[in-house]
Structure formats: structure tokens, C-alpha cells
């Protein structure tokens, strides 16, 4: 989320006749970008301004998505027609959202770790290791907040460290309740 993404359209044809990007997001309507070489003409149908050719399509057919959002997730197909034949390349774009990590002490003095609004859901573990059952809150937009409570077996619990693992990175935070 927030970064730019580039999808290349490798093709075997030296002389492109027609080039089309067909975009089918999980949410929202389909869109397409097209290029017709004999007229040196481009067109776009229902695509947001954040999606466009990286350069000129007659030079480089790469699709650039600026400031990627969850709504950009979906299938992207590049189709090329030329004298050597028709070629296509398919992508499935998955958008990762890194969670925001916070820690606090509950009313009983137990540390609680919160990995907020990540996509996919983060994994939480503790040092020292404890059996804890995380709970999840689904936000309905593909993001999930995960909570985990560290329950000490005695009143002199050591400083506990929460470790959050996610495909976009790993983080840790400690607190002494």
C-alpha cells in the first residue's frame, strides 16, 4: 500500500500491432489501456488516473500503478498482437498492508500486544514464550487487527517482548507492566 508497482509486458513480437492491458480488480469495475500502432493511438476505459503506461507504449508497454491501494488488488493481463502472433502475460496483484504495532497494560497488569489493520493478519508471539490465544477483528476491507495478551503465571513477570511477524516485515516491542 502506498508504493508504486510496475507490471512488465514481455513479448516476443518486434513489431507490435495492438497492445492491451485488461484490469479486473477484486472491487470495482474493469478497466483497460490500449495502444494501436498503425494510428499511434492510445485509449483508456474506466481506469483511474493512478494507472497508466510507465512511458510511451510504443517504447515500453510497462503498466505503472502509483500509490497502490487495496482496491488495486486483482488480475492484470497484458495482450500483445503482432506479425509473429498473439502473446499474453497475466499477473495477480496482492496488496500487503503492514500492521501498526502497539502495546499496553490491561487492568490486571498484563501486557497486550496489538497489530492493527494489517493485510494479511499478522502473527504474534512472545518472549519469554507463553501459550496465548490471539483474537482477531476483521475490518471488512481486507485488513485485520490481531490482539494477544501475555498472562504471567506469577506476580513477578519479567519484561515481556511482543514479536509481530508479517509478510511486509517483522517488528518487536517490549513493555514492563
Task: Describe the secondary structure blueprint for this structure.
Blueprint lengths: L4 E3 L10 E8 L5 E6 L4 E5 L5 E3 L9 E3 L8 E9 L2 E9 L6 E6 L5 E8 L4 E5 L7 E4 L5 E6 L10 E7 L2 E7 L2
Antiparallel strand pairs: 1-6, 2-3, 2-7, 3-4, 5-6, 7-8, 9-10, 10-13, 11-14, 12-13, 14-15
Report on this model:
The protein is mostly beta strands and 177 residues long. The chain folds into 2 domains: 89 residues, Immunoglobulins (Immunoglobulin-like, Sandwich), CATH 2.60.40; 76 residues, Immunoglobulin-like, CATH 2.60.40. The chain is built from no helices and 15 strands. A hairpin with a 2-residue loop joins strand 14 and strand 15. It is rod-shaped, with a radius of gyration of 23 Å.
Question: Could you write a compact summary of the structure shown?
Answer:
The protein has 177 residues and is mainly β.
CATH architecture of the largest domain, please? Sandwich
Distance, first to last CA: 34 Å
- Alpha plus pi helix count: 0
SSE string, helices as H and strands as E: EEEEEEEEEEEEEEE
On the 0 to 100 scale, the average pLDDT is: 89
Strand order of the largest sheet: 4-3-2-7-8
